[in-house]
Description:
Layout: H1 8-12, E1 25-26, H2 27-30, E2 37-42, H3 48-56, E3 60-65, H4 69-81, E4 88-91, H5 95-98, E5 102-103, E6 108-114, H6 132-141, E7 142-152, H7 155-166, E8 171-173, E9 187-188, H8 198-205, E10 211-217
Parallel strand pairs: 1-5, 2-3, 2-6, 3-4, 6-7
Antiparallel strand pairs: 7-10, 8-10, 9-10
Amino acid sequence: MTEEPVSEGRRRYADAPCLPGEGRLGLEDLVRSKVSRIEIEIGPGRGGFLFERLAGNPELGMIAFEVSRKWTTLVNQRLARLGLAERGRVFADDARLALPRLEPSGKVACVYFHFPDPWWKKRHQKRLVVGSGVLDEVARLLRPGGELFVQTDVEERAELYETQILGHPGFEPFGETGTASGERSARLAENPYGARSHRERRAIDDAIPIYRLRFRRV
């Protein structure tokens, strides 16, 4: 039986950066510069949010996890060209496996999920990134009062995420305050972080509704 040939694209991005070795890893060791704030982005894609967020916040360090080796490589290359590679790094790792390796607990200021889980069939539900195991790790890593931000253009997914996260003991809603009851919702009309992903910009241009959710670490 002959082996399936390796495509040119796979060879080209075979050396995409991954987390080093095995075991636990210090967050501050993964950010090359000393910073006062560390954030994590899950699935940065083409890196638009990452670039803008770092450029607008010089005291910020960001770590991102992207399963695409191509985009991991290209985004890291652009971070270097923009002079942001000392404060921003992308690793070609599955966040579900990467987050449990990070320490210390209670260090991260914010975790972002931009348009996650692009699988629609029922049999793919087990592949969802925003699940109980990942939420446990996000809660562990976030500092008290730290933020979890999720946005999607699929209403059913937004409802699923909202239910899952509100059912987790580590989070409380941190969106807009309801006018009638005075209670705070998880929903936000706008992105409050001064940066947008490529997917978010495209959805806005195409007039596609975006469902934004923000939570705070209890």
